[in-house]
Amino acid sequence: MASDNFTDYTHPELRPPREGEDSRDVLFDRVPPHDDDSEMAVLGGMLMSKDAIGEVSQMIDVSDFYQPKHQTIYEAIITLFSASQPVDAVLVANELLKSGDLEKVGGTDYLHSLVAAVPTAANATYYAEIVHQRAILRNVIAAGTKIAQLGYSAEGSQAEDIVNLAQAEVYEMSVGKVRQDYEAIGPVVHDTLEQLDKLQNGLVERGVPTGFKSIDDMTQGLQPGQMIVVAGRPAMGKSTLGIDFARAAALHHHMTTVVFSLEMSKTELAQRIISAETDIPLVALRRADDITPERWNTLNNFWSKLQEAPLFLDDSPNMSLMEIRAKCRRLKQTNDLKLVVIDYLQLMTSGKRVESRQQEVSDFSRALKLLAKELEVPVVALSQLNRGPEMRNDKKPMLSDLRESGSIEQDADVVFLVHRPDFYDKEDRPGEADIILAKHRNGPTETFQLAFLGEKSKFKDMPQDYQQGGV
Q1: Which of 280, 404, 458, 461 has the fewest Cβ atoms nearer than 10 Å?
Q2: Quick one: which H or E segment has residue 362?
Q3: What angle do CA 275, 385, 449 make, to 5 degrees?
Q4: CA dist., res. 233 & res. 213, Å (int)
Q5: Which residues pair with 434 in a beta bridge?
Q6: Is pLDDT above 90 for 73?
Q7: Closest CA relative to residue 333, chosen from 374, 294, 292, 305
């Protein structure tokens, strides 16, 4: 009978390394799962795009790379990115030179070859997923091998201990990948009641204000983690309402806000914001002769007030979801982002081949809801409605009119539908708009009457003594 401390080197996982062999490969008895091409593609994409770095760094860790030189390059990229430095092959080479690692990774030529091998940075997340999956497989094999070693080296009386150690080993493998998001009901209820107490005593701001008293009273402001959809037919004013929300947050409450405009240019957006804030008609800002000395004075005063306003505008063409996410994460880190406005959902592109446009819009909708939860900010997504309202006698929009995807209705926490009766009939309540709160996950639905000042590109609360249908 074999002694208890006998080691069976004929067992494939336990033999000592042969001359020139990597001890890691001995552990697995064959080359472990990895994909050098995907690792190179990930790094190449990161060297080409800051947005790719933001995305990839959320998905994989340095230990997910199999090749040590790729781990070293990845660490250098993340070091530069974390310090808000620009990242490219030359700057990463300088970083590696400083740490004495440049030659170990193959020199500057290897860094340039990484970039040359990747046609676009858009697929970096796809390759990152491959790298991550291979790393998981290596962890599974390593854990299994360690468990086998425990079994071979144990005494019979230690069997139950070995089972516990084996379970601990498997748990250890997964614990880094799974966040403990669950929490007992007791502390959650305590925190909720404490929040309510603070709210009652005026110690907590209610949410991101929309700038409209009736809407804020009903919704308590736009809440962190919510996806808010503002929908309407073309030219109904949905972009105007979205910009009104952004103005209220950034210009009047100094909350960092970003507007991603896939429809209008930054200049057009700026003209609308200037008109709404100064009451100078939009048409005058496009005709030099209409800007009098008095109006110039108003504009200059507005410009001086605007210097420190935390409002960011982005009109990049063909905006992808990956870019939007990466830019939002960066603003959250650097400027404490409080509100995101996207104009509008159906103009977004994924850059991938999809089964249908409806499926693509569904994916965007779900991803924006997840972004709101991840960053803990409200995300306002503007959306088109289909022709349903025009087929009805009263022309009023309904939740089912959301275009191209029922999942928008499903994912949204709040849906505002913009309806202007005078758009269809000039005599029907001219200058008035109905903002229909068609979905409100945390409260009742309601219809709000606002004044629409089209020439100044804004909505406004109705006067207190206003009677519907009156002058």
Answers
A1: 461
A2: helix 357-375
A3: 55
A4: 25
A5: 419, 449
A6: yes
A7: 374
Position 41 scores a pLDDT of 92
Q: Which pair of tokens denotes residue 456?
A: 């100044």
**Three-class SS of residue 378?**
coil
Convert the pLDDT of each residue in 288-337 to its tens digit. 777 888 888 888 888 888 888 888 988 887 777 777 887 888 888 778 88
Please tell me whether the overall predicted TM-score, pTM, comes out greater than 0.70 for this model: no
Q: Is 274 in contact with 280 (CB distance < 8 Å)?
A: yes
Give the list of residues 6+ apart from residue 459 with CB closer than 8 angstroms, or none.
212, 237, 240, 241, 244, 433, 435, 450, 451, 452, 453
| 222-257: pLDDT as tens digits | 888 889 989 888 888 888 999 999 999 988 888 999
Give the relative orientation of helices 238-247 and 266-278 as an angle to the nearest 10 degrees.
Answer: 70
Q: For position 309, what pLDDT does the model report? A: 85
Q: Which residue has the tokens 């390394």?
A: 17
Do the beta carbons of residue 101 and residue 76 sit within 8 Å? yes
CA within 13 Å, CB half, 447? 11
Give the three-class secondary structure for 446: strand
The span from the CA of 445 to the CA of 349, in Å, is 32
State the Cα torsion 438-441-442-444 to the nearest 10°: 30
- Taking the C-alpha atoms of residue 2 and residue 95, their distance in angstroms, rounded to an integer, is 55
Are 337 and 375 within 8 A, CB to CB?
yes
What are the angstrom distances between the C-alpha of 264 and each of 5, 251, 259, 311, 322?
A: 75, 20, 11, 16, 20
At residue 3, the 3 state secondary structure works out as: coil
